[in-house]
Amino acid sequence: MAKLTLEDLRRMRGEKQKEMEMRDASNKDVQVIVGMGTCGIAAGAKDTFTALVGAINEKGLTNVLIRQTGCMGLCHSEPTVEVVVPGMPAVIYGNVDAATAKAVVEKHIVGHQLIDDKILDRPSIDIIKNS
Amino acid sequence: MHATLADVIADTAQNSIEAGARHVELTIIEDGKTIAVTIKDDGKGMDEATQARAFNPFYTEAGKHDKRKVGLGLPILKQICEATDGAVSLKSEKGVGTELNYSFSATHIDLPPMGDLAGAVLMLFNYPGDFELTFTHKKGESEYSISRSELAEAVGGLESAEGIALAKEFLESQEAG
Lengths: 131, 177
Description:
The structure holds 2 protein chains of 2 kinds. Chain A is an alpha+beta fold. Chain A is 42% helix and 15% strand. Chain A has helices at residues 6-22, 38-42, 45-58, 98-110, 125-130; strands at residues 30-35, 64-69, 81-84, 91-93.
């Protein structure tokens, strides 16, 4: 692989932006938050993160913010992903492998449908009190 | 806990960000015999008593989890360093910052694989908060250095899928060299 420079990145971004302008680019009103604590990473959260980025790019979604957070107190169900879509309840999904990550983008973000069998309860009580 | 060195490096660098650092320098130097890592920050630092306890697995700074009584990042790092003929040292001053140096023997049979370093560094760059992080990786004759602010500027922000994907491509191209 040839090494990319920052100039290459700016040029590639410019090309992407032209593509984006063809689409209806609204404000970033959807948030996807990936649990990237030690527990999440040990369970494969990096793959989940990569799969989410890939699926969002593949769908050409320009209104999605991708963030990470630490442990949400749900270590038993890592990797966890919180999805916040306007007009829908904020949902935390558990055991989100790459395939589920793709489903989160296609069904939840694009299709506005919850993936029932992957939904977890809200975070642990002690975490909520801290926030 | 961590299967790869990349995750250990990301975990220890994350400590600096969580310590409120405005500037973090992460440097990895590989010369074929040794993998040496330096993490320098201007975070809150530690007094001598805290430094003495930093490698104790039953000590942690309260904050992330009030009820948690263990902190395994540095103890596990120390374990890996000692198992691979390496070393670890901590220099810190309260209110000034911390410098963590550690190394592993690159040829030791018990050395964990490096793993996905580009991905681990991307996670650090994407970590929420207003901080600068400069990453330098010197491997043999090749060397590159990139800061969070210049990468974010070049890709148009590190919180959009397109920005993250471009940053990933950049880091992977550098690491592949």
